[in-house]
């Protein structure tokens, strides 16, 4: 394995059960108890589960109804994004003490490039330890950090010893470490891709390392090439400060192609919920809603319509998605994949913008 | 027609009349004021077809009659006459001119026949009540700043008035919003008003009736209303207006009931500080940031080209740090309606409706949406 000579030092810092920990911090009666932040209604989704709830199998993005079944006595708390944003702001202030190369992924996680940290060279592990201590002191919350020489490994490392973990993956350890990973742990590999890799006999990082690049590209396109490279520890994606998101979308490849329009409509419901959740987390506002439809002949069509330039609600997203699904016509072939996304971000005035009063009757 | 009238009386009426007359109109008669002299009275009427004002003044009627002349020209002439002048108006039978004479000045104004002038609607208005001028003024003053000027949402271009409850605890409410802020104010429900339909009084009508009650003293204003029209009898003057034909949004929905972060501040000190700091935020969106923390509030503004400003005030605020941005102009508009020494600001978070109250006035409530800053 060829680790680059001038190796980078990348941190991935990820807050532990962020929303749930904030709720437990702010309300002592919630401490030590299984807790889910999210809606408890029939359509609600768990945003974050506390560590007490996780042994029961409660996970984020899980329907709340399912979570309540898995974990009797699970407490539901409505999210307070304001408190989360405030904590996130404090955390980013801590990051900024060490480097200006900070790429936030969401409120509770970020990549930092500490190859040349503020105030002169020092070991990345030491910086990670200090960041964790400062976050704890200033917010009362724990974070897990991963330290490595690229983004892919730093991110995996931060997840290894959660909560309150600090894991280093050094260049010479990388190959053996990657070899041991199941493919589902690789960035961008969801259930559908995992099944396709499995069909090629690829289950682990070792299998990927042994695979032919050409074969992966043939089966998975550009993503195949990306997988082949990161399996070799080659990930030169830079830490991009001020990265501005251009779109935000969710998509799902169905286990069985959908033939019935009712089933297609039903599939859009949870996607709208998930998309609304992510839009709110990222504070992302766009002017265009896009529905992506991939049919069983692998033809991809996208349909778009304008939406109000404000934080979209799940009802608005679902209404728009249902409209796009049936206009100008319903898909004629079985549907393999549906994707729902918001594009065309509102920029410029978003920095400072007057929020509207929302009257239900006239849509604000 | 021939009359003599005091300049002061004529000027009072014409100053109201000339507000009603649109400066640009495609229908010539609408530029004119109708003058009708009889029984020691001069009735002056102007209309823009939505709003009609009839003012009455005592006059020495030598020869009764009726005619119309350009309202703005007539007003300008009367305005420029000296203070104590007695003015004579005369139109000879069959003449197309009216003469206006005071001292040694004589003006000849072209007339249009009075029978071309649109007749005032005589439609019966079913609900009638009396309201104290001070109460009507309050309904207007504390809400009109929030009236929308956006024409697409025409139903926000006025003050929504409706009866809430009945009997001695009932109130007459005025509500206005431009979609960013909202004002709701109450006065005791006048007897007879409990049956009034919910209405939206257009901005221009609001402005005119407010000016009329300025000169009305304590005499109650006679109100008659249907779902399409409202009529105000204010001393010698009568204003009839069409109402906005639309449904005002269910405004109660945007008034939060349980905002838990509450700050109390000295009103004047706060308003002055916001005004000072906002000097920096010169852009169109005059954003200021309010950072609340235990016992204090820090007001700040940043501008790309005008610099930065920070001012700290003592505040009664026990509820944990919160940063929230607002349009400074909206804050100042609201603060100018706070009559007591203190203002109470009730917040949920930086993106939710904020309630502003005057602890000295439980009948007024303001809602303000924050800005993202």
From TrEMBL, chain A:
Q: Which reaction does it catalyse?
A: DNA(n) + a 2'-deoxyribonucleoside 5'-triphosphate = DNA(n+1) + diphosphate
Q: Which NCBIfam families match?
A: PRK02406.1
Question: Catalytic residues per the record?
Answer: 109
| The keyword RNA-binding is assigned to this record | no
The GO terms this record gives for MF are: damaged DNA binding; DNA-directed DNA polymerase activity; magnesium ion binding
Cross-referenced Gene3D superfamilies: 3.30.70.270, 3.40.1170.60, 5' to 3' exonuclease, C-terminal subdomain, DNA polymerase, Y-family, little finger domain
Q: Which family does it belong to?
A: Belongs to the DNA polymerase type-Y family.
UmuC domain segment(s): 10-190
Q: What is this protein called?
A: DNA polymerase IV
Recite the UniProt keywords alphabetically.
Cytoplasm, DNA damage, DNA repair, DNA replication, DNA-binding, DNA-directed DNA polymerase, Magnesium, Metal-binding, Mutator protein, Nucleotidyltransferase, Transferase
Subunit field text: Monomer.
- CDD domains for this protein: PolY_Pol_IV_kappa (cd03586)
| Cofactor binding note | Binds 2 magnesium ions per subunit.
Q: Which cofactor does it need?
A: Mg(2+)
In this chain, the site described as Substrate discrimination is at 19
Extract the InterPro entries matched here. DNA/RNA_pol_sf, DNA_pol_Y-fam_lit_finger_sf, DNA_pol_Y-fam_little_finger, DNA_polymerase-Y, DNApol_IV, PolY_HhH_motif, Rev_trsase/Diguanyl_cyclase, UmuC
Q: Which Pfam families match?
A: IMS (PF00817), IMS_C (PF11799), IMS_HHH (PF11798)
Task: State any GO CC term.
Answer: cytosol
GO biological processes: DNA repair; DNA-templated DNA replication; error-prone translesion synthesis; SOS response
UniProtKB/TrEMBL annotation, chain B:
Gene Ontology MF terms in the entry: 3'-5' exonuclease activity; DNA binding; DNA-directed DNA polymerase activity
Keyword flag Oxidoreductase? no
Tell me the Pfam families matching this sequence.
DNA_pol3_beta, DNA_pol3_beta_2, DNA_pol3_beta_3
Compartment annotation: Cytoplasm
Entry superkingdom? Bacteria
The record's principal subcellular location, in a coarse class, is: cytoplasm
Subunit structure, briefly? Forms a ring-shaped head-to-tail homodimer around DNA.
- Name of the protein in its database record: Beta sliding clamp
Taxonomy of the source species: Bacteria, Pseudomonadati, Pseudomonadota, Alphaproteobacteria, Geminicoccales
């Amino acid at each position: 394995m060829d680790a680059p000579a001038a190796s980078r030092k990348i941190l991935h810092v990820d807050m532990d059960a962020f929303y749930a920990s904030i709720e437990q911090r702010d309300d002592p009666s919630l401490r030590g108890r299984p807790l889910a932040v999210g809606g408890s209604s029939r359509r609600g989704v768990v945003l974050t589960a506390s560590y007490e709830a996780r042994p029961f199998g409660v996970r984020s993005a899980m329907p709340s109804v399912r979570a309540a079944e898995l974990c009797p006595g699970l407490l539901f708390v409505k999210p307070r994004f304001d408190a989360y944003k405030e904590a996130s702001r404090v955390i980013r202030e801590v990051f900024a003490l060490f480097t200006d190369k900070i790429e936030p992924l969401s409120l509770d996680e970020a990549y930092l490039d500490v190859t040349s940290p503020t105030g002169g060279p020092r070991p990345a592990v030491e910086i990670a330890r200090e960041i964790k201590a400062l976050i704890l002191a200033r917010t009362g919350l724990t974070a897990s950090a991963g330290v490595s020489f690229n983004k892919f490994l730093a991110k995996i490392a931060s997840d290894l010893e959660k909560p309150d973990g600090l894991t280093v993956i050094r260049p010479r350890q990388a190959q053996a470490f990657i070899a041991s990973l199941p493919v589902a742990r690789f960035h961008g590999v969801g259930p559908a891709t995992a099944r396709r890799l499995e069909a090629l006999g690829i289950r682990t990082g070792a299998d990927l390392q042994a695979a032919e690049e050409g074969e992966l590209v043939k089966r998975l396109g550009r993503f195949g090439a990306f997988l082949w490279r990161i399996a070799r520890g080659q990930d030169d994606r830079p830490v991009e400060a001020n990265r501005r998101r251009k779109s935000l979308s969710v998509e799902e490849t169905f286990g069985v192609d959908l033939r019935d329009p009712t089933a297609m409509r039903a599939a859009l419901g949870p996607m709208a919920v998930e998309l609304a959740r992510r839009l709110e987390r990222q504070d992302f506002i766009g002017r265009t809603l896009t529905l992506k439809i991939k049919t069983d002949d692998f033809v991809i069509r996208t349909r778009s319509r304008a939406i109000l330039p404000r934080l979209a609600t799940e009802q608005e997203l679902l209404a728009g998605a249902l409209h796009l699904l049936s206009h100008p016509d319903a898909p004629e072939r079985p549907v393999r994949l549906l994707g729902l996304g918001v594009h065309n971000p509102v920029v410029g005035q978003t920095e400072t913008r007057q929020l509207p009063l929302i009257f239900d009757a006239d849509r604000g | 027609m021939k009359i003599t009238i005091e300049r002061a009386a004529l000027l009072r009426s014409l100053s109201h009349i000339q507000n009603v007359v649109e400066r640009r109109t495609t229908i010539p008669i609408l530029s004119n004021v109708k003058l009708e002299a009889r029984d020691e009275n001069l009735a002056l009427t102007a209309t823009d077809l939505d709003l009609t004002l009839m003012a009455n003044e005592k006059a020495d009627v030598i020869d009764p009659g009726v005619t119309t002349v350009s309202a703005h020209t007539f007003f300008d002439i009367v305005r420029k006459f000296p203070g104590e002048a007695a003015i004579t108006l005369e139109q000879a039978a069959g003449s197309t001119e009216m003469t206006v004479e005071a001292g040694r000045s004589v003006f000849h104004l072209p007339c249009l026949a009075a029978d071309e002038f649109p007749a005032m609607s005589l439609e019966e208005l079913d609900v009638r009540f009396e309201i104290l001028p001070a109460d009507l003024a309050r309904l207007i003053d504390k809400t009109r700043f929030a009236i929308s000027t956006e024409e697409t949402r025409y139903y926000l271009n006025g003050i929504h008035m409706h009866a809430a409850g009945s009997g001695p605890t009932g109130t007459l409410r005025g509500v206005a919003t431009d979609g960013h802020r909202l004002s709701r104010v109450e006065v005791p429900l006048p007897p007879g008003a409990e049956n009034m339909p919910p209405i939206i009084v257009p901005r221009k009508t609001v402005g005119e009736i407010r000016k009329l009650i300025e000169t009305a003293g304590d005499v109650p204003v006679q109100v008659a209303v249907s779902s399409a029209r409202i009529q105000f009898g204010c001393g010698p003057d009568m204003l009839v207006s069409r109402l906005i034909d639309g449904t005002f949004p269910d405004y109660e929905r945007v008034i939060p009931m349980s905002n838990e972060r509450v700050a109390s501040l000295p009103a004047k000190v706060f308003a002055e500080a916001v005004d000072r700091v906002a000097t920096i935020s010169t852009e169109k969106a005059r954003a200021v940031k309010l950072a609340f923390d235990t016992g204090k509030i820090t007001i700040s503004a940043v501008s790309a080209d005008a610099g930065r400003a920070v001012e700290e005030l003592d505040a009664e605020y026990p509820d944990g740090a919160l940063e929230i941005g607002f349009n400074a102009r909206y804050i100042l508009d609201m603060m100018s309606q706070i009559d007591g020494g203190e203002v109470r600001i009730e917040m949920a978070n930086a993106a939710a409706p904020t309630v502003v109250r005057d602890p000295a006035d439980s009948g007024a409530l303001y809602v303000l949406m924050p800005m993202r800053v």
